[in-house]
Amino acid sequence: MSGEECCCAICGVILNDEVNIGSRQQSALRRRRELVRRRREGLPPTDDSTNGDDPAIDPFDDEPRDWHPYQEDQSYDPDLVSEESLEWLANVACVGYNPGVPGEHRSFLSETEPYEEPVSLVSRSMDRTESQPLGYHSVEEPNKPVAFPFHRECYIMLNRVQSATKHDSQVDPDLLYDIMAGLSSRDWYRLEIDYGPVSWDPWGWATVPGEEFVVTNPTDVVDFYNHLREKLVSGDFPPSPEKVLPGPASLDADPFYKLSGELICEIALTVPYDELLSLRSASRAFYNATQSNGFWRSRITVDMPWLWELETTLKTLTDQIDYKKLYA
């Protein structure tokens, strides 16, 4: 994608597992977590350069340091990531284009080696057994095919979303390549899309304490669903910010009463959540049609299609769940 450090075209994260993990010494943990806390609260970092003092370190702690502040400021929390949990970052594939193939379908999916500079791609088809060497070219080189690398797990997620939302259709390599090519730039080492809260510095990927979530394997969801199950069972959710429904003077004052119940439910499942709250607040017809627990369970599948294992999780619960609380 570029001559600089290259990132996953799908998630925007680094394409190897060479990620800094911080020290486990208590002094380092305290310092790093204080740095994360202050950043999240919008506070400036503490100035620990004066006289070499670190306010996050106990002055009576005689444990010799095995770390340096500069390194810790660019390292992840060892309680949140490990070498094993980062291995998925080196499981890399790509979508490429072979102009020498006859016919319309010239794009392909291929396994690759973890990203190094320069990149060397070996075309081992993810769907077929044939293989052949493939030269890599960056977007700065005109008139040469470009390969767009990504994590295998990210592609699995993309394919699963495609299958869930497009009636079991699979990702089309030709369409995927065309889209990524249209979003590429000569000046960037990732696509020109919003990757969310992922940090980069001017030279490429940046390891930022507090952003361990960006290197979490998206297919490793066991802990997430265990946590979700505990939350659902406890019912420990904040109160909903929804406004209290005002009582209309008459049914004639509510134009939505002229619509069928089926149409109201379809609208309620389609509009954004904030607009749904407004409709529930303004219309008793919408309010009544969206009171059932079954409606909110259906709404979850619309707003949170990535909760694929939710049904399996719910089957393990014996108590009735108030699904509307998930929107609080």
* Computed structural class: alpha+beta
Strand order of the largest sheet: 4-3-2-1-5
What's the overall average pLDDT, rounded?
77
| N-to-C series of helices and strands | HHEEEEEHHEEHHHHHH
How many individual domains? 3
Give the tally of β-strands.
7
InterPro entries: F-box-like_dom_sf (IPR036047), F-box_dom (IPR001810)
Region (Disordered): 36-75
Biased composition (Acidic residues): 55-64
Organism: Fusarium duplospermum
3D architecture notes:
By secondary structure, the protein is α+β, with helices and mostly antiparallel strands. It folds into three domains: 26-75, no CATH class; 86-207, no CATH class; 222-327, no CATH class. Helices cover 30% and strands 9% of the residues. It is built from ten helices and seven strands. The strands form two sheets. The protein has a five-stranded antiparallel beta sheet. Strands 6-7 form a two-stranded antiparallel sheet. Strand 6 and strand 7 (204-205) form a beta hairpin. Helix 6 runs parallel beside helix 9 (293-303). The model is unreliable at 49-53 and 118-139 (pLDDT under 50).
How would you summarize what this structure contains?
It comes from Fusarium duplospermum. Helices cover about 30% and strands about 10% of the residues. The protein is α+β, with helices and mostly antiparallel strands and about 325 residues long.
